[in-house]
């Protein structure tokens, strides 16, 4: 090949040829061929539609199927087994050079087309032999005829359309060598700003001023924006583009163009050694030779530096450093602080060429201002009314409940989702109606199966009757929802229409329109109640509902049932946890304060240490809380602290630090809370953990967060933390030995402080509330026995259809046996599991073996033994 640079020559290829050559390179690597040959390129050109090659095939009547077979056969003859592509073959270099000669000298064009490439190959003896060796079909193509009638043959090619557009863009004048490289891999942000395609940027004036100061330097005029993902680094650069477009910059920056460099496009298809560097160098040359000053913006700049780049691309920093140091290539970079330290800071020579500009997460007040600037764009896109209260709620709720992401990004995503939800509600059936219809469809299928089984006498006729009754209830519910939806839809449509009229109505009609609108809004509010099916606008409640769906945390408007549940929490817990009303009241008070949003938002909902003998309901309290407040017992995170008796087990809880085995896998506690931030955390038998383990909870109890092994902040502010301990069991048992002299909870708590201080540091006890649990009396044990027996009776009826009766003597005997062993309520489970349930199981299995069916079962205690028998 001649001394012409490959980057210069290949930059002359039109879009179709260039993309097909990139595809040929990838295709070559996929097949394991060492070099990209003409046959690879030809194969990819055959995949295109309506290019110059297809027009030549039609004009000279080539057999396209035979040509395809010949190309595949030629590909199969190439050597295979290469792990990477070494280079382009010499045939491709020569073919492009010859095509440029014919295209530029004979046709006077600035871009090489497929027809030029084919003519150049056929007019070069060595290349023509290669082409005809691939397929004899090319013997039919006359190079002279192709050149003489080129415009006619290729008139319908899409490459002709591309050439026309390029000619118009370039005004018929041949472009400089590197013209188009920047346009191919970049985007003019100043042009987008002038066209109104960039949203307004608010609240980043200080960062933009810092960038302007740095860009105005004579040397080392390269700002580097550092900040966490989502804080708005790209938006800061867009703000600068808006200022340049409006002329609100110093005189030297008025006519500057700000270009965004697309790293993905720059790296795409650059699999061959040196190709990526050639592209980057061509781009640098174009920027430096441009008559209009150009500033480059490289987002995720670490991907170009050292190990940040893709494998095989080398180190682009060596190309950037000279131009950056001389001030000839003004560049704005953006990266996160972690990636800056990992990739850029390790190269001092590169670091000194940039001046860092820290882009911090905005506070709530500034984030609200930022979001307000996006309101008009969101309203225009979703065609909904966006209230200012929704903007404020999006910032406050996302900051409070989505700690893993940064403002303003998370608030914008939240507000965008809320707008989408309102827009969907105004044009689609509500989710409640769809869910109801899906349940009806599922029930129809089940009824069909039950009827089919009943016809062949293998099914239960009573099941069909029950299913039909359920279907009728669901159908009635669906009809009610449909009617309500239609009524709401009519009102919402009318309200939206009235709002539109307010913008165009004459002044004298505004009062009447507003009165009508208010009346309709009141009617809609009365119809919807606490559970609206449609929304007329995006308000704070819609935003809160989206946060609830994302996190599982109940926010937004509390419906009456939720309010009642919180107010009656102590009663609900007392139905399951027997004899500890005082402790349940303390927990309920803290939960009520939290739900009323009056407590410190930077602490967990509550931190309680439940102290008492074994089997009195400490663990059961945590389970009951999870079921009552958090949607079920599955939302409890249980950590057995007896497994953390060594100091080094701290890393198991919060994750291994860098350099240790297990780094990156997360801790058993931190990962569980990170996945389920709204849950009960049960630290069972906390006194058995090592003192170093106790200390990691100081920050959690006081500030509501813990840093895991990877440096992430894990949010505990929406959890209830329950610690259980058997410390002071002897003291509690002794003080509560006489039922007539039972101490008050406060007195018992004060007495417990001395034994607790022997195990726990005062700093830990000062951050939580100690709740003493009383030993269980015989009356309490009897209530627990009855509660457990009711659960067994319910399972018996659900699984076997048998109604059971339990004699009072059974309860008395179980209570008596529990008293003999100092294990509290746990002995109830043991007695039922080891004595009563085996008897019932034996009876049921014997009846099943004899194919006998019974409806009633009686359980008694006679002559020192439990008895189970079927009753008539």
From TrEMBL:
InterPro entries: AAA+_ATPase, ATPase_AAA_core, ATPase_T6SS_ClpV1, Clp_ATPase_C, Clp_N_dom_sf, Clp_R_N, ClpA/B, ClpA/B_CS1
PROSITE patterns xrefs: CLP_R, CLPAB_1
One function term, GO molecular function aspect: ATP hydrolysis activity
UniProt keyword Chaperone, yes or no: yes
Domain Clp R: 10-151
Keywords assigned: ATP-binding, Chaperone, Coiled coil, Nucleotide-binding, Repeat
Superkingdom per UniProt: Bacteria
Species of provenance: Kosakonia cowanii JCM 10956 = DSM 18146
Signal peptide (UniProt feature, chain positions): none
One example of a Gene Ontology biological process annotation: cellular response to heat
Coiled coil feature spans: 433-530
Phylogenetic classification of the source organism: Bacteria, Pseudomonadati, Pseudomonadota, Gammaproteobacteria, Enterobacterales
Family: Belongs to the ClpA/ClpB family.
Name of protein: ClpV1 family T6SS ATPase
Keyword ATP-binding attributed: yes
Annotated transmembrane regions: none
GO-annotated cellular components: cytoplasm
